[in-house]
# Entry
Amino acid sequence: MSSTRTSSGVSRSSGSSADSSRLRRWARPAAVRAAGVLLAGVSVVVGCRAADVDAVTPVPQVLAFLPWLLVPAGGAVVLAILARWWPGVLWGVVAGGLLAWFLQPYGEGEEPEGAAVAKVRVLTSNVEFGWATAALIEVVRRERPDLVFVEECEYACQSTTRRELAEEYPYRQAVAGDTSVGSVILSRFPLTAAEGVPGEMGMPGAVADVDGHAVRVQLAHPKPPLPGQVNLWKRESGRLRDFADRYRDNGPVVLAGDFNASQDHAVFRRVLDTGLRDAARLAGESREPSWPSRTTPVFGAQIDHVLVSKEFSASRARFLHLDGTDHRALVVDLTLHREQEPRRS
# Structure
């Protein structure tokens, strides 16, 4: 009896060991394949970011969420460790390190040295086909910005803002249009019409008289990088870059709106390379997401921006929820400084 039990026990143990061995033989290659697929996808996007290109679909769409690629990269490292795939571990660590490096704020962050001459509060909001117009008016009355940039402000939105805000904002520059085409700049300061930036959606421009100082203001709203229109997005973003370069060292500039791009897109970094600075970055909010509003602030991308020339500093940036739109509004507090006279030797 004892011999039978021992024999039976050995038989069961041997079967269990064989099953475990087969499972390990199957699991390790599967883990290596899964880690490889994850790392390959992450590496393509990180490689485009390192090469300073936006490439083609789906790279521009994924670049908007670059920080969250740390999740699949981390998962791949765990799988590689479990599979004892050491080249994969090294691959994942390198990819994760590059991602962490690119999380740093991009662009200049120096404070202007000249004396402060004016305070300016700026609000930009994409009201999504005008659906968030009522919420926008409520926020504008509460926050009392001096300049308001409104994207996707179609006919009804423009009529409503004129009726409800004309007393507080007697000056405006608009491009009329339906759905996403219409846009408007509202101002407490006197505005003089200026040439806007051409695009499929309205991008009006003006010169604001800010306490006796001429400030070029321009609304930004290029087409988004949807599949099939990435080249159009690049062209229109390039026009914003050309605008910024044209006004380089040519007086104070505020370029604000829905750029449909984050600091991880090459087209947006090229705008910053002209010398404009991102006000949210100056105020310490370079990674706070503005879209899509239903998942912010936990998940999303910062594609709504207020860019300013070197004459401005920014002390505060806030992203506000508005009912009816998939974008959060951005409010920034700016200070306009007198341009520093060059030192004479």
Notes: Residues 1-10 have pLDDT under 50 and may be disordered. The two ends are 107 Å apart (CA to CA). The first strand starts at residue 116 and ends at 126.
